[in-house]
């Protein structure tokens, strides 16, 4: 079997440009992407690492990083991320793909290796984790299932988000690995805002980065230094919503947290009346 980890990465970012190559911890740490590739290299099962980036000029910096780190870098369509994955699968003749993203430096390699075995043994097409801190969840896709999408008529979001087709489809054989982590499940370990970067700097100076068991490190911090996780706890994470109701539920949380009570009351009444009219 050839099992590949494909990391989606781009240099541009509206909130934090260049974040994928920023040093962690700041200023003398490893580039964010190197934390990811180094952790993948400890895998018992993954035998290929590729970075899927786009042809935009600023992503040349990512390609240069890949050359230095001796990992592959494929640059393709800016909008059609799915086509990048398909191109890598064909070129490398992959059997399975672990999808990761370039803004999540804490790769839970122990859990991913176990999930790969679970995915292969049960012959799933698509397996995802759930319940991990934001930025630690992962997806595993059978390469043949991704290749089968090449000739399908898909929605625009399917090309941009790669695996959203599998999460929506009812005919796909899916696996789910559910984690129950009450003390750290709501921790935000992705890097999108400057405050995310600040939190990750504090966190990486407080944990043992050589420990493959990242979850145990996070649990320890949640007991001894929980204030670290509060640094970026108020940041909003963009999502793909299925309908107006889902989107409004998140909007209510934001309004409530910031005490926009009059607006919340007004919009709730408008929303309920709109639903009733339908």
Please give a structural write-up.
The chain is of the alpha/beta class. It has 2 domains: 176 residues, Alpha-Beta Complex (Spore Coat Polysaccharide Biosynthesis Protein SpsA, Chain A), CATH 3.90.550.10; 34 residues. It is built from 12 helices and 9 strands. α2 links the parallel β4 and β5. The chain is globular.
Please give a handful of descriptors for the protein shown.
278 residues; alpha/beta; seven-stranded mixed beta sheet; two-stranded antiparallel ribbon; 12 helices
Quick summary:
The chain is an alpha/beta fold. The protein has two domains: about 5-180, Spore Coat Polysaccharide Biosynthesis Protein SpsA, Chain A (Alpha-Beta Complex); about 245-275. It has helices at about 30-40, 60-70, 80-90, 110-120, 145, 155-160, 165-170, 195-205, 215-225, 225-230, 245-255, 260-275; strands spanning about 5-10, 25, 30, 50-55, 70-75, 95-100, 125-130, 140, 175-180.
């Amino acid at each position: 079997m050839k099992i590949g980890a494909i990391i989606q990465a781009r240099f541009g970012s509206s909130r934090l440009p260049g974040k994928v190559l920023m040093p962690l911890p700041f200023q003398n740490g490893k580039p964010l992407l190197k934390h990811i590739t180094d952790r993948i290299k400890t895998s018992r099962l993954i035998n290929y690492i590729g970075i899927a980036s786009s042809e935009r000029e600023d992503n040349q910096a990512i390609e240069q990083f890949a050359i230095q780190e001796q990992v592959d870098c494929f640059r393709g369509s800016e909008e059609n991320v799915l086509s990048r994955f398909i191109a890598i699968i064909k070129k490398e003749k992959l059997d399975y793909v672990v999808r990761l993203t370039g803004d999540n430096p804490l790769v839970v390699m122990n859990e991913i290796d176990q999930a790969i075995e679970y995915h292969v043994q049960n012959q799933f097409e698509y397996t995802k984790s759930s319940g991990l801190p934001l930025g630690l969840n992962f997806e595993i896709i059978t390469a043949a299932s991704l290749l089968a999408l090449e000739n399908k008529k898909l929605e625009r979001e399917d090309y941009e988000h790669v695996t959203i087709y599998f999460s929506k489809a009812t005919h796909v054989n899916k696996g789910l690995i559910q984690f129950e982590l009450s003390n750290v499940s709501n921790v935000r370990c992705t890097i999108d805002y400057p405050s995310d970067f600040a939190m990750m700097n504090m966190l990486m100076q407080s944990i043992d980065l050589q420990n493959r068991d990242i979850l145990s490190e996070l649990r320890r911090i949640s007991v001894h230094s929980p204030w670290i996780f509060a640094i970026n706890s108020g940041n909003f994470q963009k999502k793909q919503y299925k309908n107006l109701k889902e989107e409004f539920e998140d909007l209510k949380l934001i309004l409530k947290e910031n005490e926009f009570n009059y607006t919340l009351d007004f919009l709730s009444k408008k929303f309920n009346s709109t639903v009733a009219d339908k």
